[in-house]
Design brief:
Layout lengths: L2 E2 L19 E6 L22 E2 L10 E2 L3 E7 L5 E9 L8 E4 L3 E2 L8 E4 L6 E4 L3 H4 L1 E9 L7 E4 L11 E4 L4 E8 L3 E6 L13 E3 L2 E3 L7 E4 L2 E4 L6 E4 L3 E8 L7 E3 L8 E9 L6 E6 L13 E10 L5 E6 L6 E6 L6 E2 L12 E11 L7 E5 L10 E6 L2 E5 L3 E2 L11 E9 L7 E11 L3 E10 L6 E5 L7 E10 L1
Parallel strand pairs: 7-9, 8-10, 9-11, 10-12, 21-22
Antiparallel strand pairs: 1-4, 2-3, 2-5, 5-6, 11-14, 12-13, 14-15, 16-19, 17-18, 18-21, 19-20, 23-24, 23-25, 25-26, 27-38, 28-37, 29-34, 29-38, 30-33, 30-37, 31-32, 31-36, 34-35, 35-36
């Protein structure tokens, strides 16, 4: 609702006491000589002439002002200035009316002060603000989304005008409210979010999204829990409010229970990357699986993404490991080194493929044969490998170079009566790398010797197997235990 103009003087009469017939009211922008429109209707759609001319009784017709300051000059019919008033402020003529909308709707210049409550249950839609110049400096309208759906309500500025420097502002969550105020050229918004959707999360933020094989089909389906993140360009928040189930054995389809693979078909003994995706036109958030760790094939209209985890498909085409980056990976296992048994930890090392640091700690480990020291071998899901190592064990001023595994001590030094203690650390730069470096030190009880270890191996796939054995793969242990710690 616009404010009605009130004559700045109590009466408009000439010096002879007669009404100023044909008097003229000129309206300008405050402190300028730039004409500024007034209107004959409350909706500010029909502009008055400028000047507005009085009738024979000195009376003026309806004059409604925009919500801004004016300079007003009153002149006689002969253009003699009677007075100048500056500023003349538009009366506070706002309304406290509540307007309910559920489809694309405009805000009019007469809606100053109204509260718009938007229900996007049926579909996302847009509310368009009036031109800032028409609304005037100080025009204000609050808008809020009241439904719990995932459909966003978008508030759009007119033409090239901006809202807080952007072309529009999204209200994605229930009870997200914002107050929009014009300064006559652009819009500012004070956002009062009830959900994280409108509060920019910290750069690179990632929390939640706990994932695990789904009970309905644990071999192929993954349940991704609620979480929040910034996209990989740090431009928008991506919020998953409820559990989402995606199938790795089917092409991507929207929604929980739908397929999740971006392209092709699931392949055995393969690691897939788990992506959070969003389409900004609707605000819908979903997930997909991709072989790419940098550039997944995005479904139509989905334009935001963030990699949130990995999924390992084993050699039998079943889900083996599901891990999201916001969930800490850690574990500790101990196994005895008993006679005739190699120590294989593949079954125990859950989530090992997403670890970046692994510690292998022999504790009192001994063999029953001279010259048969322990050997560590690692490998992908197909099993630990016995080739490709660049391993160097140094002790007593001599080196031992090996390619079949990481030898914990020079073989010629080890007797059946000796036991080994120490720590070997395996590390890699990131979860995308299969190149592992290792280092460590091993002490031999009963022998004044300390072995220093260095080496590396580039695996064909993610490390999921660790085997502690003896040369030739023949297990000759008779005592001790192996501790594995990873993170």
């Amino acid at each position: 609702m616009a404010g009605r103009f009130a004559i700045p003087r109590e009466s408009e009469y000439g010096s002879n006491g007669e009404p100023l017939a044909g008097a003229k009211l000129f309206f300008y922008e405050t402190q300028t000589s730039t004409p500024n429109d007034t209107f004959s209707d409350d909706a500010l759609t029909v502009a008055n002439t400028n000047p507005v001319v009085a009738d024979a009784a000195g009376r003026f017709g309806d004059i409604f002002l925009k919500n801004e300051d004016y300079k007003v000059i009153l002149k006689t019919s002969a253009d003699v200035t009677v007075y100048t008033a500056d500023p003349v402020r538009s009366p506070a003529a706002t309304t406290k009316e509540v307007v309910a909308v559920s489809t694309t709707s405009p805000v009019g210049v007469s809606d100053d002060g109204k509260l718009f409550v938007a229900d996007a249950t049926a579909a996302p839609f847009t509310i368009t603000l009036p031109p800032a110049a028409s609304a005037g400096n100080g025009f204000e309208v609050p808008i809020g989304k009241i439904d719990p759906s995932l459909n966003a309500v978008t508030v759009d500025a007119d033409g090239s005008e901006t809202i807080n420097g952007a072309s529009d502002l999204s209200l994605p969550g229930q009870w997200d409210f914002a107050t929009f105020r014009s300064n006559g050229t652009q819009w500012y918004a004070h956002v009062l979010p009830q959900t994280p959707g409108n509060t920019p999360l910290p750069r690179s933020y990632l929390a939640g999204f706990a994932a695990s094989p789904d009970a309905g089909d644990p071999a192929n389906d993954v349940t991704i829990g609620p979480g929040s993140a910034r996209d990989d360009n740090n431009s928008v928040n991506m919020i998953l409010d409820t559990d989402l189930v995606k199938r790795i054995d089917a092409a991507w389809a929207v929604g929980s229970g739908g397929g999740g693979l971006d392209t092709g078909s699931a392949t055995a003994d393969t690691v897939y990357h788990l992506w959070l995706i969003q389409r900004t036109d609707t605000g819908n958030v979903d997930c997909l699986f991709s072989l790419s760790s940098t550039n997944p094939t995005m479904p139509t209209n989905y334009d935001k993404k963030r990699r949130i985890g990995t999924v390992s498909y084993d050699g039998s085409s079943n889900l083996a490991v599901v891990h999201t980056f916001s969930t800490p990976v850690e574990g500790r296992f101990q196994k005895a080194t008993t006679e005739g048994t190699s120590v294989t930890l593949a079954d125990d090392l859950t989530d090992l493929e997403t670890a970046t640091r692994i510690e292998i700690r022999p504790k009192g480990v001994s063999t029953n044969t001279n010259g048969q020291g322990p050997v560590i071998r690692v490998g992908p899901t197909a099993g630990a490998v016995d080739t490709g190592y660049d391993s160097n064990a140094t002790a007593g001023g001599a080196n031992s170079f090996e390619t079949d595994g990481l030898h914990l001590v020079r073989q010629s030094l080890v007797l059946a009566t000796h036991s080994l203690n120490g720590t070997v650390v395996l590390s890699r730069d990131s979860v995308d790398s299969n190149f592992w470096q290792f280092s460590g030190s091993i002490g031999v009880a009963g022998l004044s010797s300390l072995t220093l270890l260095l080496g590396s191996i580039d695996l064909s796939g993610p490390l999921t197997n660790i085997l502690v054995t003896t040369p030739g793969g023949v297990a000759l242990f008779d005592a001790g235990e192996i501790v594995i710690i990873y993170s």
